Amino acid sequence: MKYDRCRKLFSKFDKLQNLRVLICGVGGVGGYALECLYRSGVKNITIIDYDTFDITNQNRQIGSEVVGEKKVKVLAKKYPGIIPIDKKLTPQNIQEIDFKNYDIVIDAIDDIKAKIALIKNAYPKIISSMGAAKRIDPTKITISSIWQTQTDPFAKKIRDELKKNNFKGDFKVVYSKEKPIKCDMGSFVGVTGAFGFALCSEVLKDFV
Q: Which residues are paired to 135 by β-bridges?
C-alpha cells in the first residue's frame, strides 16, 4: 500500500495528508523539504520561486539537471499535484499572500528584506531556515527559537532586523552550530539537504 510505512509511524496520517503547506524558495533547502513532505504523504503543497536552474545548482538542488528551466515548472512535473507559483517574493507582494490558506509556511529564502516580511506576515505559522551554506557537518544542525540560535551569523542578522521591526514573536528555526568555513559561495548537499529534511520533520512531528 502506498505510504504504508508512513502510516505505521504517523497515527494522525489522514490529518497529515490534508495539511496545507506553503514552501517559499525551493533551492538547496526548500527542495528537500518538498521532497520529504511529498514522500511522506502531504498532498496540498504550494511552492513559490522565481529562479531558473543553473549548472552551479547541480551540487545540491533537486531538479537542477534541467539547466535553464524554471524551478517551479520542473518541480511541478516531478511532484504531480503540487501548486507552483512562479514569483519573486518581495516585501511588497508578500503582503498580498493570503496566509489563511495555509496551515504552515516554510521559509527557505535568502533575501533578508523578503525574509523579514515573510516572517512578519506569516507568523505564527512560520518555520524558517537560517544559514546552510559554508558548512559540512549535518550533525551540528539543530532546531530552536530564533532568539536562541548560536554561531550562525545569518541568524544574528535576522534577529537584528526583527528587533528593528519591533517584532516580538517567537518561532522555530533550523540552523547549524557549526562555524561557517571561510570560502566564497561554498555549499554541500549533506547540509543543505539535511536542513530541508529537518524543516519537514519539525512540521510533521505533531502527527505521530
A: none
Least Cα distance to 46 among 154, 146, 122, 111 occurs for: 122
Of all residues in the chain, the percent with pLDDT exceeding 90 is: 99
Taking Cα atoms as reference points, which of 83, 12, 11, 99 lies closest to residue 43? 83
The whole-angstrom distance between residue 153's C-alpha and the CA centroid of its chain comes to 18
CA distance 97 to 102: 10
Distance of CA 110 to the CA centre of its chain: 10
Distance CA 27, CA 47 (A): 11
pTM: 0.97
Q: What is the CATH number of domain 4-207?
A: 3.40.50.720
Cα dihedral 75/76/81/85 (nearest 10): 110
